[in-house]
C-alpha cells in the first residue's frame, strides 16, 4: 500500500518528484517544476505516494472554490497495470471536499504515435468515474479533452478556472 505525503511537508521527496514529473510528461506538456511546486503550494496540493522511502506516484492538484484540477498524475512504470493508479485516484477523489474534479487529457489523434496510450488513458479515467464534459481545450499547441468526476464542468468554468490559477 502506498502512503500519500504532502510534498510541501516533506522536501526530501522533491528530487524524486521532479524526476517522475520530467520522465512522465513530454516537455510540451510541462510547466517549469518550480512554478508547479509554487502554484500547488499556494492554490493547491502536490502529493507524492511512497512505499517505504521510495516515491511511486505523484498527484498535483490546483484547487478552486467549487472545482479542482488534477493537473498532473503519474505512477512509476513498474507500479502501473497493478491497480495502483486506480487506488491513488480513488484517494484523490476522496479529497474533493464536495468540489468537482476535472482533468485535461490529451485528445487522441488517429494515427499519431501516442494515440493508443491516449485512448487507454481516457479509458482509465472513465473506469474510475470520470465523464467527458463534451468539449476540448487547447494549450501550448496541444488539444485536451476535459473529463470530470463529481459533476460536469462547463467550458466557461474551465476557462475561468485557468484564468485564476496560473501554473507558470
UniProtKB/TrEMBL annotation:
Domain of life: Bacteria
Domain N-acetyltransferase: 4-168
A Pfam family annotated for this UniProt entry: Acetyltransf_7
A GO molecular-function annotation: acyltransferase activity, transferring groups other than amino-acyl groups
Protein name according to UniProt: N-acetyltransferase domain-containing protein
Source organism: Mesosutterella multiformis
Amino acid at each position: 500500500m502506498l502512503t500519500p505525503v504532502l510534498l510541501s511537508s516533506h522536501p526530501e521527496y522533491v528530487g524524486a518528484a521532479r524526476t517522475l514529473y520530467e520522465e512522465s510528461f513530454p516537455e510540451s506538456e510541462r510547466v517549469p517544476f518550480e512554478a508547479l511546486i509554487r502554484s500547488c503550494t499556494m492554490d493547491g496540493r502536490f502529493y507524492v505516494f511512497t512505499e517505504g522511502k521510495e516515491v511511486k506516484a505523484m498527484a498535483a492538484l490546483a484547487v478552486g472554490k467549487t472545482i479542482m484540477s488534477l493537473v498532473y498524475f503519474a505512477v512509476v512504470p513498474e507500479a502501473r497495470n497493478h491497480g495502483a493508479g486506480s487506488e491513488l485516484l480513488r484517494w484523490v477523489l476522496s479529497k474533493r471536499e464536495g468540489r468537482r474534479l476535472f482533468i485535461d487529457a490529451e485528445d487522441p489523434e488517429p494515427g499519431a504515435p501516442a494515440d493508443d496510450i491516449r485512448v487507454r488513458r481516457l479509458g482509465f479515467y472513465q473506469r474510475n468515474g470520470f465523464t467527458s464534459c463534451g468539449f476540448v481545450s487547447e494549450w501550448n499547441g496541444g488539444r485536451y479533452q476535459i473529463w470530470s468526476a463529481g459533476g460536469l464542468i462547463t467550458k466557461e468554468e474551465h476557462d475561468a478556472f485557468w484564468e485564476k490559477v496560473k501554473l507558470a
